[in-house]
Amino acid sequence: MTPFENSKSSKKSSGRGEPMVWFTGMWLSFGMLMIIVLLSIIVKNGFSTFWPSPVLQIELVEGSEAGLRGSSKLAGDIRKEQIRTTASETGEAVPEIQLFIGNREAYNTGFRFVMESDIKSRDFPEGIMRAERLEYGDMIGYPARLELADGSTIKSTDDSFASTLHDIVKEGNKRRHEIEHIEKDQIGAINRSMESIKMKRRGWESEEDIPEKTQKEMEEKQAELQADYEELASEAKTLRELQSANTLHYLLPTDGERSVPTGSIVDYYYPNQLNLFQRTLRFFKRVGSFVKEDPREANTEGGIFPAIFGTFVMTLLMSVAVVPFGVLAAIYLREYAKQGPIVRSVRIAVNNLAGVPSIVFGVFGLGFFVYFMGGSIDSLFFSERLPTPTFGTGGVIWASLTLALMTVPVVIVSTEEALVAVPRGVREASLAAGASKWQTIQRIVLPASLPGIITGLILAMARGAGEVAPLMLVGVVKLAPTLPLDTIAPFIHLERKFMHLGFHIYDLGFQSPDSEAAKPMVFATTLLLIGLVIALNAFAIIIRERLRRKYKTSAF
């Protein structure tokens, strides 16, 4: 091939845009690589939160600053290994490890950095115990003895120590659930009934206006409720006293004895005695506890079930609200509205709404939904409760409507595109057969457009489930004692505040009193939020693909 032919072939190749194909492909690969790396970091750190790591005990060299309470020993699991530059003139780089040492009530800290040069020896003692507690985080130490309620003592070297401790902790967990049931469910029901009587009294203009019979009935009911309350409160107090009747004494790795009531121990194990199978079982047990339990210790311990439930309910309500508004608006703009400057302006406004910062929607939701609509509902239907607001404060219904308003442009645009994609011949055939325009839209156009509509819903759900800024103004809280759905009539409580996984991550990362202790929970919650979004999207995608196969035409 001559040089002229080579030059001509090169120009043709350049004219076809092959270099741009390689260029765009390179950036696509780079973007996918960043996503894979990010997800890998989240998955690795998220799952490592639940893996029971062995506990390392180290002996420090004499004069080391890493020691605590004048001791030369430390024990804990390794959370991080890094290189640190010293503050000396030479700026020497030295390796160091971060240990989670637990026992926060004893050390006033849960973590300790130790330079490798300060470590004299390492050991993994089999007798060391790690216990999850209701307060002060985990305990790491050597069990010494059990002091029982009857005054007897069982030493850790006795054969009956392990079985006795297991039974006591199991019984304590059962008793704790009984206390929660009494205080949250039974006493909660009594408080709601007493509040109802109080609101009924407020409904009358004055105490003198209440009929004598009604007054007597309310007083009798109130006395009965008060008696039930005192009985349940006494039962809960007795159970709490039993929780602190037995005591576990243990030795700190730094020497010195501490004690903990067995009723505050949630779980315990010996990390250096576990084999791979036992570690795997404990891993799944901790994952299950994380998913189904309530948070503790300023959300840095325990589980996140209320946040999972709140995120799911909010996303579901948002989807139910956004689809009708978005689809009806798209049908009117595409099928009924006369195309012209006004309709073009509306489309431009809809597209611009998608670029408005989410916090602006939060401010609008606070002003319109919470203060205006919620305040009006309180004035009309809950006037006896004022000045305490019912709907005139943040709640799951206002959060859902705010996010629906924020994501409705996505649904409108995707629905319009789906409507345009329906072949013209299908519409004409329906009209020629005698169907009206609405019948054609209802029975021909909409079914064929459902895959595109659901695509818009998927995008709306993905964005709405991960939003945090607007929710902080319209209903999300750090800790919600009650769920939006429960067994109490009317079962669906749209006025209640709720927890959200996205806000939970923000709270742990930026508002936690102990950032190091909260870091594992941040990764675990992030992993769960990503999993929840993927699950919701996968469910919608499956429905979309089934509808696409069912209503497949030549245009798809």
Keywords:
556 residues, alpha+beta, MetI-like fold, five-stranded antiparallel β-sheet
Molecular structure report:
58% of the residues lie in helices and 13% in strands. It has 556 residues and is α+β, with helices and mostly antiparallel strands. It has 3 domains: 56-127; 145-274; 309-500, MetI-like fold. The strands form 3 sheets. Strands 6, 7, 8, 9, 10 and 11 form a 6-stranded antiparallel sheet that branches. The chain is flat, with a radius of gyration of 32 Å. The model has no long low-confidence stretch (mean pLDDT 85).
Describe how the helices and strands are arranged.
Elements: H1 3-15, H2 18-48, E1 56-60, E2 73-85, E3 93-100, H3 104-107, E4 111-115, E5 119-123, E6 129-133, E7 139-147, E8 153-155, H4 161-202, H5 212-243, E9 247-251, E10 257-261, E11 265-269, H6 276-292, E12 295-296, E13 301-302, H7 305-336, H8 341-353, H9 358-381, H10 396-421, H11 424-432, H12 437-466, H13 471-474, H14 501-511, H15 515-550
Antiparallel strand pairs: 1-2, 1-5, 2-3, 3-4, 6-7, 6-11, 7-8, 7-9, 9-10, 12-13
Helix pairs in contact: 2-15, 4-5, 7-10, 7-12, 9-10, 10-12, 11-12, 12-15, 14-15
Number of helices: 15
Q: CATH H-level name of the largest domain... which superfamily?
A: MetI-like
CATH topology of the largest domain: MetI-like fold
Biggest β-sheet description: 6 strands, antiparallel
Instruction: Please state roughly what percent of the residues sit in beta strands, choosing from under 5%, 5-15%, 15-25%, 25-35%, 35-45% or over 45%.
Output: 5-15%
From the alpha-carbon coordinates, what is the Rg to the nearest angstrom? Answer: 32 Å
Global structural class: alpha+beta
Give the tally of β-strands: 13
CATH class of the largest domain, named Mainly Alpha
> Alpha-carbon distance between the termini?
45 Å
| Order of helical and strand elements | HHEEEHEEEEEHHEEEHEEHHHHHHHHH
Number of domains: 3
Shape type: flat
Oligomer status: single chain
Level of helix content? 55-70%
Low-confidence stretches: none
Examine the secondary-structure arrangement and name the CATH architecture of the largest domain: Orthogonal Bundle
